[in-house]
Amino acid sequence: MLVACNSSQTSTASAATQAGPPTVEVTPVVAKKLDLTINLPGELEPYEAVAIYPKVVGFVQWIGVDRGSHVRSGQLIARLVAPELVSQRAEAQSKAEGAQSQLAAGQAKLAGDESTYAKLQAAAKTPGVVAGNDLLLAQKAVEGDQAQVKALSDNVQAAQQALRAVSETEQYLRITAPFDGVITERNIHPGALVGPNTPIPMLRVETLQHLRLVVPVPETYIAAVLEGSEVEFTIPAFPRRKFKGRIARISHAVDAKTRTMPVELDVSNRGGTLTPGSFSEVMWPVRRPGASLLVPSSAIGTNLERTFVVRVRNGKTEWVDVKPGASSGSYTEVFGDLQAGDEVAVRGSDELAPGTQVKAQRVATVAQVDPQKP
């Protein structure tokens, strides 16, 4: 019995030795120019949007628009009334007229004193006709009148500016549209008391014919964002219809919280089909300035500590930490200590511990031919 047991153990060890290391399917890392499309969320916004607040305190006397009304730039859309401004204007008008009257009186006195001084100067040419003191007094009177006229002239200008300020303030009682657009919000009615400190706007005007599509682009995909490129997108209201926008504004700054960079597209909406505030699905083009390294998505393994691929070199496995990028079908872009041609296990798993002796069996992959057609 002991002989038979030893013989069985010897046979098992011999079979294990004959079996050799396990066979692992491997595929080469492929370097390809990446040019694909991914879906990113976006939001449509009006190109221009203004909340209209009153600049003066007053009562709403008339309002000629409502939610959904189309307005033109400079169009009168509401009118306020403020009785205190009427009294302020009358007071300013009275002060301006009073200052003008005082200036006229001062100018008349100046003209009279200048005439007297001129006559005294002419008479003084004859010795003994005019006393020197009288001539000096006449000269000082003219100089005083000139100073008085200048002060009165300044008063007139100040009074006119005050009158002009009241008149300009009265213009604020006329509410006009700042640009061509649509009234999307109305919060007032005739008789309401409004003012600059009103917590909500009187009206809100937005453009509809020209929209912005704001797309938060992850930092992984911002390497080749080209201004002027045309991008397609869809909205839930028309799921089978594709719309187009052109990349117009790039922020060139990544948000530290979301790790995305806002990019704006200009969208023409002359037909009014699109609605500001709608969410969209953007077919965002992903391009790299150079070749990217691609591996089958199944080759990327993860555990609680790391993301890796299993590279097989000289018959032994080794883990290489990678960071996944864009996906193209069943292949994924990776960043790490890899080179084109490195052989990695088709299925990355932590069961293949580093340093395991394996037999590599190379398999054909579509990525060797065209990574865009998995």
Describe the structure.
- This protein is an alpha+beta fold.
- The protein folds into 4 domains: 22-32 and 291-368, Beta Barrel (conserved putative lor/sdh protein from methanococcus maripaludis s2 fold); 38-47 and 207-289, Efflux pump adaptor protein, beta barrel domain (Elongation Factor Tu (Ef-tu), domain 3); 49-82 and 173-205, Beta Barrel (OB fold (Dihydrolipoamide Acetyltransferase, E2P)); 83-171.
- Helices cover 26% and strands 39% of the residues.
- The chain has 3 helices and 21 strands.
- It has helices at 2-19, 83-123, 132-171; strands spanning 23-28, 30-46, 49-52, 58-63, 70-71, 76-81, 174-176, 181-186, 193-194, 203-206, 210-218, 230-235, 238-250, 260-268, 279-296, 300-302, 307-313, 316-328, 331-336, 343-345, 359-362.
- A 6-stranded antiparallel beta barrel has the order 2-11-14-13-12-15. It has a 4-stranded antiparallel beta sheet with strand order 3-10-8-5, with no helix packed on it.
- Strand 18 and strand 19 form a beta hairpin.
- Helix 2 runs antiparallel to helix 3 (132-171).
- The longest helix is centred in the first third of the chain and has 41 residues, at 83-123.
- 21% of the residues are buried.
- Mean pLDDT is 86; it is low at 1-17 and 367-374.
